[in-house]
Amino acid sequence: MLENILIKTTYNKEGASIMAKEKQFVEAITSMDQDFSQWYTDVVKKAELIDYSSVKGCMVIKPYGYAIWELIQKQLDKRFKDTDHENVYMPMFIPESLLQKEKDHVEGFAPEVAWVTHGGSEKLAERLCIRPTSETLFCEHYANIIQSYRDLPKLYNQWCSVVRWEKTTRPFLRSSEFLWQEGHTAHATADEAQAETIKMLDVYAEFCANVLAIPMVKGRKTEKEKFAGAKATYTIEALMHDGKALQSGTTHNFGDGFAKAFDIQYTDTDNTLKYVHQTSWGMSTRLIGAVIMVHGDDSGLVLPPAIAPIEVMIIPIMQKKEGVLEKAEELRKRLAISHRVKVDTSDKSPGWKFSEYEMKGVPVRVEIGPKDMEKNQCVLVRRDTREKLIVSLDELEVSVENLLSQMQQDLLDKATKHRDAHTTTAVTMEDFASQLKATPGFVKAMWCGETACEEAIKEVTGASSRCMPFEQEELAETCICCNKPAKEMVYWGKAY
Amino acid sequence: MLENILIKTTYNKEGASIMAKEKQFVEAITSMDQDFSQWYTDVVKKAELIDYSSVKGCMVIKPYGYAIWELIQKQLDKRFKDTDHENVYMPMFIPESLLQKEKDHVEGFAPEVAWVTHGGSEKLAERLCIRPTSETLFCEHYANIIQSYRDLPKLYNQWCSVVRWEKTTRPFLRSSEFLWQEGHTAHATADEAQAETIKMLDVYAEFCANVLAIPMVKGRKTEKEKFAGAKATYTIEALMHDGKALQSGTTHNFGDGFAKAFDIQYTDTDNTLKYVHQTSWGMSTRLIGAVIMVHGDDSGLVLPPAIAPIEVMIIPIMQKKEGVLEKAEELRKRLAISHRVKVDTSDKSPGWKFSEYEMKGVPVRVEIGPKDMEKNQCVLVRRDTREKLIVSLDELEVSVENLLSQMQQDLLDKATKHRDAHTTTAVTMEDFASQLKATPGFVKAMWCGETACEEAIKEVTGASSRCMPFEQEELAETCICCNKPAKEMVYWGKAY
Questions:
Q1: B92 to A145: CB separation less than 8 angstroms, yes or no
Q2: What chain B residue is nearest to A309 in terms of C-alpha separation?
Q3: Which of B95, B110, B117 comes nearest A55 by C-beta?
Q4: Residues of chain B contacting residue A137, judged by C-beta atoms under 8 Å apart
Q5: Which residues lie in coiled coils (chains A, B) (predicted)?
Q6: ipTM exceeding cut-off 0.90 for this assembly
Q7: What is the CATH number of domain B2-28+307-406?
Q8: In chain B, which stretches have pLDDT less than 50?
Q9: pLDDT digits 0-9 by tens, A243-269
Q10: Are A58 and A175 in contact (CB under 8 A)?
Q11: How confident is the model at residue A2, as a pLDDT?
């Protein structure tokens, strides 16, 4: 596999001389097939996305990793604003008594919150937890500001960091502190709240498909898997390269449960007091983990152009020759009008640079050297397929543009094919186990709706219920586990 | 004063009928001259910038307040990126042992940090404080990633919230949690670090002048006022409408103090190990407080167009008449190409809307009604001067554009005039006290450099040293306090 990559990569003369060095660089990461988990850790470090810190379970998000997050934020935030949501900022602290107001919610979160007990040298009269999520704070605020039907709906979102005290952590996928957005809305009716819950799930899925190039399965969580305090939780589930599922975003319909606990009432047009209906929804830096595990390969990260901090990296060949650096800079200027583009003028060899930006997942590299200049051409190389294209400099802009949009589309298609090829169906428990072993991925199977069966399936196969998809199929009439009448087709899978 | 405002505001017939109601709305805020502090609190609430929460000293930043912060962030972040800085994200926690590594730093911050002692139900082996500022975290990271001169400079910034346990708090000006940016850089030489410290101070001052329309005095802080752990602290100081000073941003040169405490060394070109030289610099949501107190008036907030979430509010007059709402929407579309613009189609009366958007500081309002339509015109009203302009609809875009840029410039000019008119000089302590009473503001006076005199001056006059300005004048040869030879001319003032 590694050999293939090296052979498929195209080198100019100067580049060839450093093949040994480059091999060393590439070999520094474990191959996916050998140890997917180690490969992930290697990529996260070698692509310079994160660094570890001395704080348990917390990571430093380095410039390149944070630039990806900024591109995710920007494009997601635009979608929130286009759907009339407004950003706000709530305190990071929740007094213990406030957290306890909604019974299910506190039971779900209390075991994993960080507690502040002292301010300076003084002991606090009441402990404060650092928000693991901010339902309680939004509810307190909504109780303050909602009086009349005229005040509804409230469509708020916030970008912040939250803390959940995790025992075992992995960069981006599970950390004690992580960055996210949390939408919190209040509506006059149950129907409106339900519509919002589904609408934001659709926004999430559309964003993941069109920006992250990751196809999602949309559906509802079972009672066992739903959010603490929610009436219903909806989820988008993605399939990673190794066949494991990743819950990538969730939306929750709270009905009027929180409204009753926090006394959030409004005077309706008929002059009667009514409780509001609420929702919340969140996506986090976990999405970066999804991008790594869906698109990455043995040379490192592969970034969809839409979230690539550098879409095009220009690498001058024989850069000491007259005019090469000037030409590279000229191309940069031309491409910079529509794209995020850089030139690497450092004294590293071209081959070394090729490997470095492959590791970082830069979608397109442009090679330009004296021979290319003579022929008024340059070489374009796509990160995902490593296809090499020789194009006239007169058509540089349109060629790069086409290559980037083609790559964005191809990544989605490839991920969709992989997901579909790793989605099997089972009608018996034996099927289930053998399918999951032969083709690790999603298994579709019928379920009676009982938590006991859900737990038994996990016990036997290791797969948890991922969601009850909106697009139901009737694979059988009975539950795969207990043979009682089936209620739902469920996507099952081993999950991160 | 209030009567003047009402008379100067222009009403159409429909508007006149609600004058009483509007008066009520406007009167709901205290006048500046009567009680500036109460006026500030009223504006912050009535303009819907913040709400209080049940968490001591923490505020909820509401959509309108947060939208101002987003515009500040966006324009400041662009300046950071244009000067080659990169954004990162560090953990929000600092282990106690890490905080203690730099002696002066821990002494300065330990008394005001929040301590996390428990994760879930378990007591932590080591207490963690919530970052009051992140020097220690950046230092730990820099010690990890800096090896060679090739790794320098590191020019990092982060946007986050920080916590300082304050006894008395005021929205935006002083709160237990606040939002800010903190730049942290590491350089090969002392000269480079000093150049960065001054460069970022200049970036801050230019931003405040051109975006916030607030003129700044730039200078160095005295030993007493400098940042805990810094070799030198530089500041930009603004003068509020009430004559009090507001420290609006600071930059710190750490020399190699932190580098020695955290062992951040690099191998230089001559193959010897050297300590890096570091800086940090920060501005916060406090800037919103400055905008309120520099530009606001008795009708509420006045926003410079550059940070106004709504630059232009269109208010239809007699909106039930045929074609009025359609025309208003047409104008909105035309202006939306270059500006943040909205139409208020609610059933509130025009006069009510006028007051509401004056309270919110919307720079320009457009009035359009049936009579205006007949004449192919509309009315433009500037928030700051309340000047009324009747313009042809054919010239709408250019008229609005001119009005907005004129207002942006005029606000800066007015604030500069106010600042200059409230900057006095003193050569005796008697002068000092009487000047400060007669013309509350900055007092320029000579100083010997001794902390004892600095403290005595504060004791006697209530004014603290704001900065030793870059532009020095020799007002006298001796210290205003002790009559020993003077070393510096200092800006003094009562401060927030």
A1: no
A2: B86
A3: B95
A4: 53, 60
A5: none
A6: yes
A7: 3.40.50.800
A8: 1-21
A9: 999 999 999 999 999 999 999 999 999
A10: yes
A11: 33
Which tokens hold the place of A391? Answer: 């194009």
Q: Is the CB of residue B494 less than 8 Å from the CB of residue B440? A: yes
Task: Pick the residue from chain A with its C-alpha nearest to B130.
Answer: A116
Closest chain A CA to residue B179:
A89
Residue written as token pair 């090969």: B188
- Statement: A59-295 belongs to CATH 2.30.130.10: no
State residue B28's pLDDT score: 77
Which amino acid would we find at residue A346? S
- The alpha carbon of residue B176 is apart from the nearest alpha carbon of chain A, in Å, by 9
Q: d(Cα B432, Cα B424) in Å, to the nearest integer? A: 9
Rounded to the nearest angstrom, the minimum Cα separation between A70 and chain B is 9
Question: What single-letter DSSP state applies at residue A57?
Answer: T
**pLDDT tier, A7 (very low <50, low <70, confident <90, very high otherwise):** very low
Report the gap between the CA of A86 and the closest CA in chain B (Å): 6
Which of A89, A92, A139, A348 would you mutate first to test chain B, the one with the most B CBs within 10 A? A89
Distance from CA of A430 to the nearest CA of B (A): 40
Look-up of token digits 């007949």: B374
User: Nearest CA to A493 among A467, A470, A453, A466?
Assistant: A466
**Residue A290 to residue A242: CA distance in whole angstroms:** 11
- Show me where the domains of chain B are located: 2-28+307-406, 59-295, 424-493
A423-493 falls under which CATH superfamily? C-terminal domain of ProRS (3.30.110.30)
Residues in A closer than 8 angstroms to B116, CB to CB, are 114-117, 130
Q: Is A191 exposed, middle or buried (0-12, 13-18, 19+ CB in 10 A)?
A: exposed
* Per-residue model confidence as pLDDT tens digits over A188-204: 999 999 999 999 999 99
Query: E strands along B352-416, which residues?
Result: 364-368, 377-382, 388-392
Instruction: Locate the chain A residue with the closest alpha carbon to B74.
Output: A74
Cβ-contact B493, B217 below 8 angstroms: no
What's the topology of domain A2-29+298-406? Answer: Rossmann fold (3.40.50)
Distance (Å) from the C-alpha of residue B92 to the closest C-alpha of chain A? 8
Residue of B nearest to A128 (CA): B55
CB B306 within 8 A of CB B287: no
Q: What is the mean pLDDT of residues A280-309?
A: 98
**What is the spatial order of strands in the sheet that B177-187 belongs to?**
B86-87, B154-163, B177-187, B277-284, B245-255, B232-239, B217-220, B464-469, B488-493, B442-447, B423-425
Q: Which residue type, as a one-letter code, is found at position B269?
A: T
